[in-house]
Write a structure and sequence with these properties.
The protein is of the alpha/beta class. It has 4 domains: 4-232, Rossmann fold; 241-287; 308-544, Rossmann fold; 573-641, Helix Hairpins.
C-alpha cells in the first residue's frame, strides 16, 4: 500500500490550472524527483503532499501513522533562536512528552507517556540533535539569524533528519549549498531508508539520488522510472509524437473550416454529421493546452576586449588577520570560460574582484585588459526592485529596448519579455509576484539586454528549470566574450567552463589559507586531480609527511622544481629588447585582426574584390596563431624577468 496517494487533484491560480486532474502515489523507500518548468506548480504540489495546503478539488490519502516532514526552499525560523533549539524543533513532540513525564503532573498517565516516548526515541533526543549538528558541521550556540543562506538550509535539513520521518519532502535542497555539502547530502539521501520527494533542477544530483522521475507539465503528472538520462530520452520521443499528433489535428481542423465556409451550393449539400465533427474539433483545439514555449536567449558580446583580460602575478589579499588569497598567479585571455569552485565564505567573490581590478591586492600585481565591458548576475537578486514592474525592470521609462551589436535594432519590451516566457499580461505585474526561478529569468533578461564582453555569473542556475539551464549552457558555450562562473551545479560547470580556479585551503589535505590553483577543464577534471593530491597526502609516510608542513602543499615541491631553473636564468640583452617590443607587436596584430574582421563582415569586399576573400580569411586565422605565440613568449620572458 502506498504511503500517500493524491487522486484527481485540481489547483488553479487565476485562469491557469497548475494541477488538472493530477494523480500521484508514493511507495515506501521510493526516491522521487519532481521536475517541471518554473511556475508549473511543483512547490504548490509539494505543500499539498505535506498537508500544508489543500487542492481546489481532489483527495489526498495518507497511511495511518506516517510521519511527513517538509523542508521549504527558503526555510523560516523564529527570530533569535539558536541552532540547537532550531534543530530540536524536529523532535518537538518527544521533547515535550519527556518534559511532561519528568514533571509528574497530577493525573498524568505515565505509562502511556512512557510508551509514546519510547516509540519516538524521546529518551535520547539530545544525542540525536548533537549527532545531526556534528554531521552537518553546525555550531549549536550560533544564532540562526546570523547564518548564511547555505548554513540556514543545513539547519533546516538537520531539523528534518532528527525527526526521522517516513516521508521527506525537499524543495530545492541544493540551493545555497556548496559542492562538498551537496555531495554529502547526495550520499545521505542515497542511503535514506524512508521515502523521498524532492524538487530540484540539479541534474547531477537528481541522477545520483532519484529512483523515479515525475514530470509536472500543463497540470498533469507523468511518471518515468529510472535515472534522469532515461527520462530525457523517453521525453524527447513523447514530445515528437505529441507535435506530430497536434499538427495532424490542426490540419484536419483547417480543412473543415475551409469546407464550412464554401459557397451556397456546398452548404446545400453539407451533412449534419460533418458540422457536428467540426464543432467537436473546435472544442478540442480550444481545450488543448499547448506545450510551454522555449526561452529565446540571445547575448551580445559587445565590443571585443583586448586579448588579455587579466594577468595576476603572485597576488595576495588579506582582510585583517584573514588571508583569502595567497600568491596566486594566472592569465585570463579573451574568450576563456572560467569556473570558480570553493566552499561558501572561502573568498570567491574577493578573487573575482581582484581579477577584474575592483580590489587592489595587499601584495603582488594585477594587470587588467583594455576595453572591458562587465555585466554581473547577482545570486541574491539584490539588484531587483520588488515593487517595480517587469517592463520597468527591463527598460525603465521606455517601451523599447535598444539591442547593440551585430543583431542591433530595437525590440518592444513586451516582445522581449515574451522571449523569456513572460506573457504581456504579466509585464505590468510587480517583481514580488514572481517565483524564485522567474526572478532569475528576469535577471537574465535584463543582463542580456546589455552589451558586455565579460560576464560574471554568480550562481545563475539557482531555481532555473532544466530546459532553461540547457539553453543557457548552449548560449554561454557560443558566447564570444569571457565568462567567470561561480556555481555549485556540477553538470553546468562541466558543460560550460574551459578552466577552473579552485580553492584548496583545507589543512586536512595539505592545504593552507588562501591557496588557489588553476586547472584545465571543468568540475570532473578538478575533482580527479584533487583526489590524486589528497591520496598523496593520505598515503605519505611519516618521514615524508614531516616535509609537507614546510610548504603545506602536496604539489609545492614539483612546482618549486619547475620554477627553480627559471629563477637562475637571467634575460640576455636581446631577450630584454624582445620583451620590451612584444606589447607593441601584440597591439599591432590585434589592430590588424580587427581591420580584417571588419572587411570580412562587410559587403563591399565580396562585391569589388571577391578573389581576395580566401587570402584575407587565411590571414585572419594566421594572426590568431601569431597572437597566441606572442602572448606565450611574453609570459615566458616576463616570468624570468621577475
Amino acid at each position: 500500500m502506498a504511503l500517500l496517494t493524491l487522486a484527481a487533484a485540481h489547483l488553479a491560480f487565476g485562469h491557469v490550472p497548475l494541477l488538472d486532474g493530477a494523480d500521484f502515489a508514493l511507495e515506501a523507500g521510493e526516491r522521487v524527483a519532481l521536475i517541471g518548468r518554473n511556475g508549473a506548480g511543483k512547490s504548490s504540489l509539494l505543500k499539498i503532499l505535506a498537508g500544508l495546503d489543500k487542492p481546489d478539488d481532489g483527495l489526498l490519502q495518507v497511511q495511518t501513522g506516517v510521519r511527513i516532514v517538509y523542508v521549504a526552499q527558503e526555510p523560516q525560523f523564529a527570530a533569535g533562536i539558536s541552532v540547537f533549539d532550531a534543530v530540536a524543533e524536529g523532535v518537538g513532540e518527544a521533547r515535550s512528552l519527556r518534559a511532561r513525564y519528568e514533571a509528574h503532573a497530577p493525573g498524568e498517565d505515565l505509562d502511556a507517556l512512557q510508551t509514546r516516548l519510547e516509540a519516538l526515541g524521546g529518551w535520547t533526543w539530545e544525542r540525536r540533535v548533537h549527532e545531526a549538528l556534528q554531521r552537518l558541521h553546525l555550531d549549536a550556540q550560533d544564532a540562526v539569524d546570523a547564518l548564511s543562506g547555505g548554513t540556514r538550509k543545513r539547519v533546516a535539513l538537520a531539523q528534518a533528519l532528527v525527526a526521522a520521518p517516513d516521508v521527506l519532502l525537499l524543495d530545492e535542497p541544493t540551493n545555497h549549498l556548496d559542492i562538498d555539502a551537496i555531495e554529502w547530502l547526495q550520499g545521505l539521501l542515497v542511503e535514506w531508508a524512508g521515502a523521498l520527494v524532492l524538487v530540484s533542477h540539479d541534474r547531477a544530483f537528481i541522477d545520483a539520488v532519484a529512483t523515479r522521475i515525475v514530470l509536472l507539465d500543463r497540470g498533469r503528472l507523468t511518471s518515468y522510472p529510472g535515472r534522469f538520462a532515461q527520462y530525457q530520452a523517453t521525453r524527447e520521443r513523447e514530445l515528437e509524437a505529441e507535435a506530430v499528433a497536434g499538427a495532424r489535428a490542426d490540419k484536419l481542423l483547417a480543412q473543415e473550416e475551409v469546407w464550412i465556409r464554401k459557397g451556397v451550393e456546398a452548404r446545400r449539400t453539407r451533412s449534419a454529421g460533418r458540422v457536428a465533427r467540426l464543432q467537436q474539433l473546435r472544442v478540442q483545439r480550444a481545450a488543448r493546452r499547448e506545450q510551454l514555449g522555449q526561452v529565446r536567449l540571445e547575448l551580445d558580446a559587445g565590443r571585443p576586449s583586448g586579448r588579455i583580460v587579466a594577468e595576476l602575478d603572485e597576488v595576495s589579499m588579506r582582510f585583517g588577520d584573514k588571508l583569502l588569497v595567497e600568491r596566486f598567479s594566472a592569465t585570463i585571455l579573451r574568450g576563456d570560460k572560467v569556473g570558480l569552485i570553493g566552499p561558501n565564505g572561502c573568498g570567491k567573490t574577493t578573487l573575482l574582484k581582484l581579477i577584474l581590478g575592483e580590489l587592489q591586492p595587499t601584495a603582488g600585481r594585477v594587470r587588467t585588459g583594455t576595453r572591458l565591458q562587465v555585466a554581473y548576475f547577482d545570486q541574491m537578486r539584490a539588484a531587483l526592485d520588488l515593487d517595480a514592474t517587469l517592463a520597468d525592470t527591463i527598460s525603465p521609462g521606455s517601451e523599447w529596448i535598444e539591442l547593440a551589436g551585430p543583431g542591433g535594432g530595437r525590440k518592444h519590451v513586451m516582445s522581449y519579455l515574451g522571449d523569456f516566457l513572460f506573457s504581456p499580461a504579466r509585464a505590468n505585474a510587480p517583481v514580488r509576484t514572481l517565483s524564485g526561478g522567474e526572478r532569475n529569468r528576469l535577471l537574465l533578461a535584463r543582463l542580456f539586454a546589455l552589451p558586455a564582453n565579460v560576464l560574471v555569473l554568480d550562481e545563475p542556475t539557482n531555481d532555473l528549470d532544466i530546459d532553461t539551464l540547457e539553453l543557457l549552457e548552449e548560449l554561454l558555450q557560443a558566447y564570444a566574450g569571457t565568462v567567470f562562473l561561480v556555481s555549485h551545479d556540477r553538470q553546468f560547470l562541466d558543460n560550460v567552463v574551459t578552466s577552473t580556479i579552485a580553492w584548496e585551503g583545507d589543512p586536512a589535505f595539505g592545504g593552507r589559507p588562501g591557496l588557489w590553483r588553476e586547472y584545465e577543464g571543468g568540475w570532473e577534471d578538478w575533482k580527479l586531480q584533487r583526489e590524486r593530491a589528497r591520496a598523496l597526502v593520505a598515503g605519505a609516510a611519516p618521514g615524508a609527511a614531516a616535509a609537507v608542513p614546510a610548504a603545506r602543499d602536496p604539489l609545492a615541491p614539483a612546482a618549486a622544481a619547475a620554477r627553480a631553473p627559471a629563477a637562475r636564468t637571467k634575460l640576455s640583452y636581446k631577450e630584454q629588447r624582445e620583451l620590451e617590443a612584444l606589447p607593441a607587436g601584440i597591439e599591432a596584430l590585434e589592430a590588424e585582426q580587427r581591420e580584417l574582421a571588419a572587411r570580412l563582415a562587410g559587403a563591399e569586399l565580396y562585391l569589388n574584390e571577391p578573389q581576395r576573400v580566401p587570402e584575407l580569411q587565411a590571414r585572419h586565422e594566421a594572426i590568431e596563431s601569431e597572437l597566441m605565440q606572442a602572448l606565450e613568449r611574453w609570459e615566458a620572458l616576463a616570468s624570468r624577468a621577475g
